[in-house]
Amino acid sequence: MFTGETKIRVRYGETDKMGYCYYGNYPEYFEAARSDVFRNSGCSYRELEEMGYIMPVISLTVNYKKPAHYDDLLTIKVYVKKRPEIKMHFEYETYNEAGELLNTGTTTLCFVNTKTGRPSLPPQRFQDILDKYFD
Amino acid sequence: MFTGETKIRVRYGETDKMGYCYYGNYPEYFEAARSDVFRNSGCSYRELEEMGYIMPVISLTVNYKKPAHYDDLLTIKVYVKKRPEIKMHFEYETYNEAGELLNTGTTTLCFVNTKTGRPSLPPQRFQDILDKYFD
Amino acid sequence: MFTGETKIRVRYGETDKMGYCYYGNYPEYFEAARSDVFRNSGCSYRELEEMGYIMPVISLTVNYKKPAHYDDLLTIKVYVKKRPEIKMHFEYETYNEAGELLNTGTTTLCFVNTKTGRPSLPPQRFQDILDKYFD
Amino acid sequence: MFTGETKIRVRYGETDKMGYCYYGNYPEYFEAARSDVFRNSGCSYRELEEMGYIMPVISLTVNYKKPAHYDDLLTIKVYVKKRPEIKMHFEYETYNEAGELLNTGTTTLCFVNTKTGRPSLPPQRFQDILDKYFD
Fold first, then answer.
1. Is residue B52 within 8 angstroms of chain D, CB to CB?
2. Which residues of chain D does A11 touch, with a Cβ-Cβ cutoff of 8 Å?
3. A116: how many CB neighbours lie within 10 A of its CB?
4. Neighbours of D123 (CB within 10 A)
5. Which position among A112, B126, B131, D51 has the lowest Cβ density within 10 Å, counted as fewest Cβ atoms?
6. What ipTM score was computed for the predicted complex, to two decimals?
7. What pLDDT does A135 receive?
8. Cα(C25)–Cα(C62) distance, rounded to whole angstroms?
9. Which residues from C are below 8 Å from A12, CB to CB?
10. pLDDT higher than threshold 90 for residue D1
């Protein structure tokens, strides 16, 4: 399993007039979290792009249980449970400092080779890293 | 059926370095679209809040088919196919100017009475409006 | 003078827990407004980029007088009072539906030729358009 | 002097199609930075609000020198050089990991007592903290 977590503090501008962290911020939080997981694996998403790959998002789901508030320090846990091939599926859990589960989410991304513009397996360097995480 | 559509032009700051409209903008676009549908029904979401109701989002899904680009004038179509009770379920379709379907999405929201802090049926005034749309 | 105006409705996610439109949204509103002014002139900013020019922002100021609220339909007025050379200076005024002036702002942008990566005069096609607005 | 710094990593969704961190993100970055300075002083902005004060922004300036890019880890330095009375003036400097100064900015905020709705001196508890920083 390819996994990790990241801390995000809710910014003032990310709250809405209900006083909650706006529901539309979580896709960006999830992206920050998976970005950290890539970086910590030894192959950052920035490097993937430099190698000629982009990863558009194909699908997103979020299930909201409790709201976050301004200045809350959130923990986003990321799980990749299945070895990615052309697609890479991420699961997310967002917790507040009290350890309460605020929401869960998923995203599916696709590797695209920017030279061909077509879906593709990830580059060899990233495959080698995945070998460490998956049988 | 409770339905409508809204036009949204993709802002420069809403693009990302891939040159696409960032995937995380669509929840906000969907919210703008459902906000227009409420306003056009004769009971704006702002008025709902003034009557003592808020509508937190419980779930979100988006399926991305094609990207939007800077300056694209998008049409977001909104459908509420089932009469809302405590929950209100919205479906969305995003089209570009060429009429291509870029993505589809759903959100489920919950009416919450701010006096009790608890889920609730919508206020009578909005119920009366719903009578026009649903048998 | 090169001028115009655009309408922007404040989105729910653009409010903050004070109940106001977050101060950090106005740079994006200003960008949407100047984008409309370009488009209406007959040379959209998108076309400028396709001709090989980008316009990074060099400076920004905003003076906030009154807040905007959720669902307010704002009018952003844009003024370019001096014929742009390498730099283009914009002034903005934001009004609410009651005609109250909410804030004023300025941005200075620079034409950059993407081939050379260097500041540059705008392309001839845009110069010809400017001839209509400035002596 | 009341001062501090904060680290912010540029998110993918914060880039634009030029490949730069969008100019409109910096007001939010500055807010995150001043929020950290308050928290580190022993009186968080959240606590100020709980004591019945809000701090709307009155003015903003940013001077952009160089762009930031995706995944850059920025350092935002914050300086309050003059003891705040009704207004509090912040200066900002944004640096990238190479130590290059990317931009400078300022914001002026105003203490508002939410009971009266009027500008006000900050609460005594925050005054006591300021005593440590200013003669």
1. no
2. 28, 31-32, 35
3. 9
4. 16
5. B131
6. 0.96
7. 79
8. 11
9. 16-17, 22
10. no
pLDDT category of residue D102 using cuts at 50, 70 and 90? very high
On the question of pLDDT at D109 being above 90, the answer is: yes
- Contact partners for chain B, using 3 or more CB pairs closer than 8 A, are A, C, D
Q: For residue D13, is pLDDT > 90?
A: yes
Asked if the C-beta of D114 comes within 8 angstroms of chain C's C-beta atoms, the answer is no
| D135, pLDDT greater than 90 | no
Query: Which residue out of D57, D103, D109, D114 would a mutagenesis test of the C interface target, given it has the greatest number of C Cβ atoms within 10 Å?
Result: D57
pTM: 0.96
Cβ–Cβ under 8 Å, residues A102 and A65: yes
Shortest CA distance from C25: residue in chain D: D24
A17, A21, A28: best mutation site toward chain C, by most C Cβ within 10 Å?
Answer: A17
Tell me which chain D residue has its CA closest to the CA of residue B12.
D16
* Shortest distance, CA C25 to any CA of chain D (angstroms): 7
The number of beta carbons lying within 10 Å of the beta carbon of residue A69 is 15
Q: Which subunits sit against C, judged by 3+ Cβ pairs under 8 A?
A: A, B, D
Q: CA angle, B35 as apex, B30 and B39 as ends, to 5°?
A: 150
Task: Please tell me the predicted confidence (pLDDT) of residue B135.
Answer: 79
Q: Does C19 touch chain A (CB under 8 A)?
A: yes
> What is the CATH architecture of C2-126?
Roll (3.10)
As a whole number, the mean pLDDT across chain B is 96
Collapsing DSSP states into helix, strand and coil, what is residue B78?
strand
Distance of CA D134 to the CA centre of its chain: 18
The helix/strand/coil state of D128 is helix
Q: Do A56 and B64 touch, CB atoms closer than 8 A? A: yes
Counted across chains A and B, CB pairs separated by less than 8 A come out at 56
Q: Which fold does the domain B2-133 belong to in CATH?
A: Thiol Ester Dehydrase; Chain A (3.10.129)
Could you give the CA distance from residue A2 to residue B119 in angstroms, rounded to a whole number? 38
Asked if C16 contacts A17 with a C-beta cutoff of 8 angstroms, the reply is yes
Residue B90 pLDDT class (50, 70, 90 cuts): very high
Residues of chain A with pLDDT below 50 are none
CB-closest option in D24, D25, D70 to B17: D70
